[in-house]
Amino acid sequence: MDVRATAKYIRISPRKLRPIVDVVRGKKVDDALTILMFLPSPSARTVAKAVKSAASNAENNYEMTPADLRIVGIFVDEGRTLKRFRAGPRGRVKPLLKRSSHITVVVREEV
Length: 111
Fold this sequence. Notes:
This protein is of the alpha+beta class.
């Protein structure tokens, strides 16, 4: 059975999160959390929270063993974009796009 967790409206660009997500795709949850702990990117902490949430959902709601869980799907979708403006040269306006992300983690128990 697949168990999922979603972290929505994370104020980090999807382009910055996708390489971190690619590192842990297909790994066991314990290994993925260890890898995320030692990644130099500050965004790895946010991905680790989503992975821990999916593991907790599996353990508490479906009584699965956390040691047997594997990440079968993890992906980042684009969330809402906040549109702001900054002054540009010669009295013009330059758009500032503040992007957000949705992180979805799917785990499955493998015995």
